[in-house]
Amino acid sequence: MSSITTDAKFSATHTGGTDPTEYTWTIQGPGYTSTETGSDPDEITFFALGPHAITTTVKDANGITGSDTVHVMLTELGLFASITGPATDVTIRATGTIDFTAEASGGFAPYSYTWQFPGGTPNVSTTQAQTGVAYNFIGTYTATLTVQDTTGLTAIDTVTITVVP
C-alpha cells in the first residue's frame, strides 16, 4: 500500500487527569485504519485520498480516557513541473552543451524526474538537474521534463532547443 505524507500538523493537549498520560491517534480512511502515538506525532501517514476521521485518545495513569475527533478531506493537489534552466527556448551551436534544471510543486512529495532529450547526449535522465547535454547535429529538438509525485500524478514541461551551424 502506498502512503501519502502531507504538511498538515496535528497536536493535542489535555487538562486534568493524573500524570503520566499517553496519547493514541487513530486515523480512519477509505479502506484502512492506522495508529500513531505521542501528543504531537512527527508525521501522520495517510494511505488513500478521501475523507478521514482522526481521533485522539488520551489515557491517564488511572486508566481514565478522553477523546476528540476531527474530520479532514484529503484531496489530490495540482502538480506543477517547471524547467528552470534553460527557462526559455534556446539556440546553440552544433557541439554545444546545455545544463537543464527543474522544479516541482504541489502534489505529494517526494517527486521523481524524467527528462527526454531527443537529439541530445545523454538522451534520457532521471535526475532533477542534468548538466552537459550535448547537441551535435543541426535541427530543432524538444526537451521534455516529466515529474511524478507519490500518488502517480504527473506534470510535463518542455523547452525547444534549436541547433545551428
Draw up the topology in text.
Layout: E1 4-5, E2 22-29, E3 32-37, E4 45-46, E5 50-59, E6 65-74, E7 79-85, E8 90-93, E9 96-106, E10 112-116, E11 120-121, E12 124-125, E13 129-135, E14 139-148, E15 154-164
Parallel strand pairs: 8-15
Antiparallel strand pairs: 1-4, 2-3, 2-5, 5-6, 7-9, 9-13, 10-12, 10-14, 11-13, 14-15
Report on this structure:
By secondary structure, the protein is an all-beta fold. It folds into 2 domains: 8-74, Immunoglobulin-like (Sandwich); 79-164, Immunoglobulins (Immunoglobulin-like, Sandwich), CATH 2.60.40. 0% of the residues lie in helices and 59% in strands. It contains no helices and 15 strands. Strands 8-15-14-10-12 form a 5-stranded mixed β-sheet, with no helix packed on it. A 4-stranded antiparallel β-sheet has the order 3-2-5-6, with no helix packed on it. The protein is rod-shaped. 15% of the residues are buried.
Ranges where pLDDT stays below 50 over 5 or more residues in a row are none
How are the strands of the biggest sheet laid out side by side? 8-15-14-10-12
Radius of gyration: 24 Å
CATH superfamily of the largest domain: Immunoglobulins
> How many beta-strand elements?
15
Structural class: mainly beta
Look at the structure and give the mean pLDDT: 88
How many helices? The count is: 0
CATH secondary-structure class of the largest domain: Mainly Beta
Helices and strands, in order, run as: EEEEEEEEEEEEEEE
